[in-house]
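Below is our example:
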Amino acid sequence: MDINSDMGEGMSNDAELLHYISSTNIACGWHAGDPATMKQLVEQAIQKNVLIGAHPGFPDLEGFGRREMEISEEDAYNYVIYQAGALQGFANAAGTKLHHVKPHGAFYNQAAKNIQLARGIARAVKDLGREVILYGLAGSCLVDAANELKVPVWQEVFADRRYTKEGFLVPRTQAGAVIEDEAAALEQVMQMAKKGQVTAIDGSIIKIQADTLCIHGDNPHAVEFARKIQAALA
């Protein structure tokens, strides 16, 4: 199972996390990040043989891209092309290529439920290159849109987030949405990896496909989670 982490968002643990993951999602400047950080992370990822992905978000630095916005399918397309294209430029300049695109925050969560936004994102990923993969929430509209447009897709699951009974991520505003206990995070990961299922916040069991596992870089326990999860999966 691929292990990914969101990076370039102002956290101090990016370099350390690269030891324990296999792909990185690099912020492209709209919700976080800047050109110098993007360039540096691309170079560091190459050194660690970590796959390089773009992490485009809403144009919302103040809200860290976690506030909902009303946008069209064409807006979604343009947002991805603009941001991922910038990171693709840094990757090409460093002698490598863009491996994937994973939307950030509210952009990701809205597209997981809205097929129009998901189609805009999937179209953009397709136009970035036929080998570029879309990382999308397992079982969501992002996966449906990718399959519809014949875009490579890896279904994503989360080590440090709880799920609703419908299979979406519990909103961060709700108590218990973020898993902060290492044992609980590891238990959830192993359930997804071994059984293809996850226990929702209400106790129900959801079937889930786990191609890539996210550990959020802004979780204060991210490095320890990543170290223990990598060892357990191995």
Notes: The mean pLDDT is 96. The domain at 2-162+209-233 is CATH 3.20.20.370 (TIM Barrel).
